[in-house]
Design a protein that fits this description.
This protein is α/β, with parallel strands linked by helices and 176 residues long. Helices cover 61% and strands 10% of the residues. Strands 3-2-1-4-5 form a five-stranded parallel sheet. The longest helix is centred in the C-terminal third of the chain and has 14 residues, at 146-159. The radius of gyration is 16 Å and the shape is globular.
Length: 176
């Protein structure tokens, strides 16, 4: 008898800033090999359409992953949920769509860096990771080595608007 074996992959929903940061620090390519990335339409608009208007290299690289079906765009069915999240918590549309899509898809992790949106995740009990925690997790999982992790963390200190103390904690954690 023939059995179809399906490789199970964790589903990550991402907001635009985290997706861009992961691309900018060269971690996204490693992550998409191990996780299924899904984004809502607004995240596509913010990370690709708006980025291409300013000729951002990262936008073109993200678009290539979308065109190659490595990152999927998914429509949100409950549009009222987006409005409710925006009105109740005062977060931007991209973050609200990412949260709504996470809830719709019953995903595993929400990739998000926005402080207000992180607070919404805590209220809804949504497991989330920032770009910085993705680096640390990738290091722990041996997807990246120490010198790669160090460079990524240092770049997040430049691009990611992380507090210096978080960057130093992360560097200390990896032993750099």
């Amino acid at each position: 008898m023939y059995y179809n074996v399906i490789k199970l992959r964790k589903i990550i929903i991402s907001d635009a800033s985290t997706l861009i940061l992961l691309q900018k620090i060269d971690l996204l390519d490693k992550l998409v090999k191990n996780f299924a990335f899904i984004i809502p339409q607004e995240v596509y608009s913010e990370s690709v359409i708006k980025g291409k208007k300013i000729k951002s290299k990262d936008s073109y690289l993200i678009e290539g992953k979308i065109d190659g079906r490595i990152i999927k765009i998914k429509e949100i069915k409950d549009l009222k949920k987006i409005s409710k999240i925006i009105n109740e918590f005062g977060i931007e549309k991209g973050e609200a769509e990412a949260i709504a899509l996470f809830l719709q898809e019953n995903a595993d992790i929400l990739a998000i860096d926005d402080h207000k949106a992180i607070n919404v995740c805590k209220i809804y009990k949504i497991p989330f990771m920032t770009a910085l925690t993705f680096v640390i997790t990738a290091f722990d999982a041996k997807l990246i080595v120490k010198n790669e992790a160090k460079k990524m963390i240092e770049n997040l200190g430049i691009y990611g608007r992380y507090k210096d103390e978080l960057v130093y904690k992360a560097l200390n954690y990896i032993g750099a």
